[in-house]
Amino acid sequence: MTNKTILLFSLSLFLSANPGFCQNIQKPNIVLLLADDLGYRDLSCYGSTQVQTPHLDQLASEGLRFTDFYAGSAVCSPSRAALMTGRSSVRAGVYSWIHTSQKMHLVKEEFTIAELLKESGYQTAHVGKWHLGYDLEEGSGPGPNPGDQGFDYWIATGNNALPSHRNPENFVRNGKAIGPTVGYSSHLLADEAIDWLQRREKKQPFFINLWFHEPHQKVAAPAKLEDRHQDTDLPAYYGSIENMDAAIGRILKELERQGEVENTFIVFMSDNGSYRGKNGSNGEFSNGKTTLWEGGIRVPGIFKWPGVIDKGKVENRPAGVVDLLPTIQEIIGGNIYSSIKIDGTSLLPLFNNEDFERKQPLYWFYPPSRPVAVIRDGPWNLIADPELDIPRGNMFQEDYIGMIKTTQLENFRMYNLRNDPKQTNDVASENPEIFELMKRKMLQLHQEIVHEAIDWREFSWPE
């Protein structure tokens, strides 16, 4: 019996013995909004002079805006795995973005936010990009699809919206391919979310996991939005962000219409930095998507929870998508089996203006990147390269796992991100005690996580 099976069985026994448990506690609805390839500086509330995002700006003004918020990885799939599980993406077995040729996927045994909430009496829906496995249509393969990971209702694409954000043809709803659609991806997803909100059981709390495709390529946006950005080299990129903001505005309006705003916990974030690093999308930070420099992993992070999070709050303590599962667990009082190692830390004390202490540094390991490993602890940022030259190509090969499991780390450098957000001045020699402590923490975490990570060379699909 797997840990997940034991946990779900235990929870079902508890809820059966305590039928009033869920009804007696006012649990907030939860809405997670995830952009795809959105850079740190791509919202007007984060300093963009190119885009106008009034709905997300309002969300930030009514809640909390993190200055130091982090994706789960430098590319899509591993970041989403970290978000869903509260675990390092490599610990969860997702080393890089997932391709149809690979065995790699988020295994069904991983315990997700959706399963945590479903077992606590929530209605659950996934709307949008998935990219944690490709077998979405019934009979197409062993999965997993969102329904295998705790979602009652779902509509998804395996990876990107195709052929572009305009009139995508590859949506699958609850295992059935939809075929050609008319409209833009962000608004088609808003339509689905609003329809589900209107049809749901009103007596239960709800969870919507809404993962947009914007502004990942191939970008497309209405002409009136693209026309506003004709002075740029890619008007559709900025137009697609504004189109996504408008779609989010529609969802927020529906929550208001239903009287659910005051009892809804909302988070907006991005899965990694922008691929347009040289065009200002990642602000002052170095590099962008596919790298573990700050431009590749530092992203917008906006949280709103009326009555709990102060309006207009700006927070500079580091946090990330890996913190969402333990935060939600503490909010709802859910349970996670003790043998499941969670890497994130609950942010609830921070929301409540209480003392907040991270249980372990934020950690990233992305094989194609140099640096290959990074930790963030307070203001300090430590980076390292692999001793073995793991191939750096965009397409991850599962044969690399042998090198990943055995390589040591070298070429350690340390930065104080409060003083040096561009990561230009290695201060390791000036702070030897902090450097040695950071190095020990990185090596311990790295060894532990890589040891637990699935070796896909030895994996076979269950019959």
Structure characterization notes:
This protein has 463 residues and is an alpha/beta fold. The protein has two domains: 27-351, Alkaline Phosphatase, subunit A, CATH 3.40.720; 362-458, Arylsulfatase, C-terminal domain, CATH 3.30.1120. Helix content is 28%, strand content 17%. It contains 13 helices and 15 strands. It has helices spanning 3-17, 21-24, 54-61, 76-85, 113-118, 185-199, 223-226, 235-257, 294-297, 324-332, 348-351, 401-406, 432-452; strands at residues 29-35, 64-70, 123-129, 153-157, 172-173, 176-177, 206-211, 264-270, 298-304, 313-315, 319-320, 362-365, 373-377, 380-386, 409-416. The strands form two sheets. Strands 1, 2, 3, 4, 5, 6, 7, 8, 9, 10 and 11 form an eleven-stranded mixed β-sheet that branches. The protein has a four-stranded antiparallel β-sheet with strand order 12-13-14-15, covered by helices on one side. Helix 6 (185-199) runs parallel beside helix 8 (235-257).
